Each structure stands twice: as structure tokens, then as C-alpha cells.
Amino acid sequence: MSDRKDVVKVASGQGFWGDDLEAPVRQVQGGPIDYLMLDYLAEVTMSILQKQRARDPGAGFARDFVPLMERIFPACIECGVRVVTNAGGVNPVGCAEALVEAGRAAGVSGRAKVGLVTGDDLMDRLDGLLADGHELAHMETGMPLVEIRDQVQSANAYIGAEPIVRALELGADVVVTGRSTDTALTYGPLIHEFGWAADDHDRVAAGVVAGHINECGAQCTGGNCLIDWWNIEGMGSVGFPIVEVSADGSFVVTKHLGSGGRVTRASVSEQIVYEMGDPSTYITPDVIADFTSIHLDDLGNDRVRVHGVKGRARTDFLKVSIAYAGGWKATGTLTYSWPDAGAKALAADRILRERLDRLGLVFDEIRTELVGWDSTHGALVGPPPADVPEVQLRVGVRGADRAAVDRFTREIAPLVLTGPPSVTGFAGGRPRVQEIMAYWPALIRREAVESHLVVDVREV
What we know:
The protein is of the alpha+beta class. Helices cover about 30% and strands about 25% of the residues. Strand 1, helix 1 (about 25-30) and strand 2 (about 35-40) form a beta-alpha-beta unit. Helix 3 packs across helix 4, helix 6 (about 160-170) packs across helix 7 and helix 7 packs across helix 8.
């Protein structure tokens, strides 16, 4: 126990796939940290990755991660920074293999180990699980999965900290998972470093809160901030969060000295309530955290202390993220200018719908929005005032018949010469037909997943 750290610093370097590519580099180079967590996944991301893997069996992971690691691998090894990420997506094996090659290209052969966690992917086991009585019913509708089984494209369970901890115990410098829950990328290293027991609910729950604050990157350091956002400086080189965690579970949220943005009680509070349902019951695979127990102390100088977090025992279930083929969609836009921009856009919509009806096209939904008037806050009463300088007409359709959706894409352009005047904004050609990957959330008894998790550590 004597070799345990008093404080462990876990830095966030990625809030989603597509986030600031330079943020992880700044985190590693900007000052001392112990861990770098990189969160790439969301439900829609899993669907995108599955579509990519369907086209290319070697795809299915966050490809940005591999060149990033090739760039920072030497610095991480030299500074003792360990990386934990769910960049593996639906193909963690392919991600780990590419990462090993990137490490060799970066010159860390013989000095680095890559940990790989597999077993969250349930696709190959899905029929067996259904046969064994796991209904995987939709969490909101109660419909059993068998109703759409032939449409399922991917099924991944949200796994917790245990396999991450095992990989770190085996000496992994980089841990790659599939659908790890976002918060475990932070609290997994904390469990490893401090030796928190599984039933130490308050400390593990504190780690969950630290992970929740970390998981969205700069959203807690001034990005996407509602309060006084116009006075936040340095957002061009915004600092991403770092949680400095003590063994008792209390921690300080901060960022590297001299980086942009800010860390205040308000900015941290905004992130805490992000994507929040019942704040007293924040469920993770390892613990239920009570977010109403959180205490925040603004220490000034971009430092906010978080303490007092309470937790209780985990549930007997894990959440499963299932993606299934839900039909086809397409969206087209046209912009109408003053005068009477709104009236012109509404007339164009009416003409378009008449033509779709005449062609006998049937859709599950046709949605019209006037961007600049009613697209953000929902439908408003009446058309936009006549003096509105411009309105963008956006019309989308979705349905099971791809041919019908494709025909819709051919009916937007004719409005340029067969509809109201002063239209523009049709650059880029016809709208693109896209397959809908719909989301099906379900629960499964945890033993059906955890008994199949495998941790493998590979030499670079």
C-alpha cells in the first residue's frame, strides 16, 4: 500500500468522436498527469461504426485514435501517462492491432503494452441469449427484441471498470475497450490506483461523478456554457478538464495553467446536470451514484472541489445498446429571400407535398422546418413576418421504401423553376438517401455478459 499515490490526475482529452484533435496533445504536453481518458462513443457513434464495419470488416473503430497515439505515444511512455479509451467501438481487436503497429512506428517497441478488452459485443451470441430467455425488451416500449431480430445490426453491452482495472494490473500502458460506459474510463484507473473495493459505494460513486465531469471534455471548462459565455476567454485553445482525485474520493476539477476557458462552480454544475434523469439514481455498471449528494466548493484560480458524494449498490443488470435497420431517410433544403421569405417557403412546401401525393409516394413521416423561424423551438403560430430577410426551407422524409425516398430527392430541385421566386441554396446537388440506424435500449442480466469479458495485454 505504501506505493499508492496520494492524488491521481486523470485528464480528459476527448468528449466525442470528432472532438478537438489537438486537445489530447495539449493534455499530455501541458503539465503532469497520470492518465489520459479518451471518450469516443455515443449511441449514434456505435451505429456509424457498425455501418462502416459492414462495408469494411477492418473498420468499426475510431480511426482518429490511431494516428493520435502514434503522435503522443513516446511522450506518454516517457512521462508515465497511461491512456484509457473506448475507441475500439464495434471492433476493439482491429483497433488494438492498429495501435500496436502505431506504437512500433512511433518507436516505443519493447517499452509499451496495449491492453484489449473484448466481450461487450453480443451479436454472435444474440440468438442464444434470446433462446435462453433474455428478452432484451425495449426499455421504453417493452417490445421484445424478437420483433425486429432480423433488422439488428449491432448489440453491445455497457461494461464497467473491472476489465479496465485488470488490464492496468497487467501493465497495460494503453487500454482499448469497446462499449465501456463513459464514466468508467475515469473511475477505472482510480479503482486501480487506490484499491477501492467494489462495495466501497461512496468512493466508487465519487469516481463516477469525476468521470461524468470528465466525459464531455471542454463542456465543463467553458465550452457550450450558458452562464456569461460571452466573457469566457481563450476558447481557441481551451483547456480540457483534469480531475485531481484523492483516496477518499474527493477531487478537484481544474485544467492546465495558461490554457483557455475557465473552471468555476457554474461551469462544473452545468456539466453535472448534463443528460441527467433522476439525479438521485445515476446508474452505472459498478454503482448507483446519488448526484443530489454532490458538494461543490469554488476554490478560485480554475479549481473546483467536489466532495460528499454518496452511492449505493449496483443493479443486477447491464444496459445494452442495440442498433437496427430502421428504413431510409433524406433531407433537402432551399433558401428563400425577402420579401415574403416565409410565405414563399410555405408555398414551396405545399407544392412539394402535392407532387409527392400525386406520385403516390408513402412515407412514415414528412417533416418540414423553416430554419430561422421554427426549427429550434418547435412550430410557431403562423408564418414568419414579411420582413424576415431569409428563411431556409428544410424538408425531410423517412420510410421503409428506399425507392420512395430516392424519388423524393428528385423533387426538390424542380422547385427552383417551378415554385416561388427568389430561391437559392441548392448547391451540392440532390439530397443523399441514408439508411436509418435506429436505437434500441435494453437490459440484460450482468452475469450473461461479464462471464464472457476477456482482457488481453499485448507487447508493442
